[in-house]
Specification:
Purple Acid Phosphatase, chain A, domain 2; alpha/beta; 239 residues; 6-stranded mixed beta sheet; 8 helices
Length: 239
């Protein structure tokens, strides 16, 4: 049965509903989440109400911990910091407790899961180059690690000699090759494609699935909540 990985929902209920509808259409067996359930978007509690009962395993993201007051906000940009403070006020005690209890890493169905980087997950590093990916691939025994955090969907593959980067939506799992895959963001893509996304895992293939959703409504809800308008405007550009 196929299974799925979602990441970086960021309180975007409209994007999450579209992704889960597609997951249901494909009869996906189980779902994992790479964290950042909240932050930026206007619906942190509805997102968690909808997603948490559906997932089999999750790891924590930096915005999740920021919403719990567990990560300093001085390295966040002003809009991200404002949204974290707003989310701290909005988040229910039960959802806060859930996020605080999440692990940094998890092994799940042959995949290594981490929000940011496998080597130092608590440092929230971005993995954006082949050199960085080569170092990160030494940190896990599985043949595939899936990360989020950068919101830039893409794939690193090591064939035993070198590491290459590619953006193909379909990624084969090949014997003797190691993969580090950056999952597309559900709620705030930054790769120039504004569509919501997730990873579909079927046998020996991993697919980046992208889906149109009601961006205008997500942006409207951000503005109505009193969050920085730029957080809604950027959704239409995927940046």
């Amino acid at each position: 049965m196929p299974h799925a990985v979602v990441s970086d929902i960021h309180g975007n209920l409209q994007a999450l509903e579209r992704v889960l509808a597609d997951i249901d259409r494909r009869h996906v067996d189980a779902i994992a989440c790479l964290g950042d359930f909240v932050g930026y978007g206007a619906d942190p509690n509805p997102v968690m109400d909808l997603l948490v009962p559906r997932i089999e395993v999750a790891v924590v993201g930096n915005h999740d911990l920021a919403a719990c007051g567990r990560v300093p906000l001085d390295y966040f940009n002003p809009d991200a910091a404002a949204s974290a403070i707003w989310t701290q006020r909005e988040l229910t005690p039960g959802h806060r407790a859930y996020l605080e209890a999440l692990p940094m890493t998890a092994s799940w169905r042959g995949l290594w899961l981490v929000h940011a980087s496998p080597v130092t997950p608590e440092a929230w590093h971005y993995v954006l180059s082949t050199g960085e990916a080569a170092d990160e691939m030494r940190a896990y025994a599985e043949d595939v690690c899936v990360i989020g955090h950068s919101h830039v969907a893409g794939n690193f593959e090591r064939d035993g000699r070198s590491v290459r980067y590619f953006r193909d939506p379909e990624v084969p799992r090949r014997s003797g090759h190691k993969l580090l895959i950056n999952a597309p963001s559900v709620g705030q893509p930054r790769d120039g494609d504004p569509r919501a996304g997730y990873l579909l895992i079927e046998d020996d293939q991993i697919t980046h699935v992208r889906l149109d959703y009601d961006i205008a409504e997500a942006a409207r809800r951000i503005e109505a909540a009193g969050l920085p308008r730029a957080l809604g405007a950027r959704l239409q550009w995927g940046e």
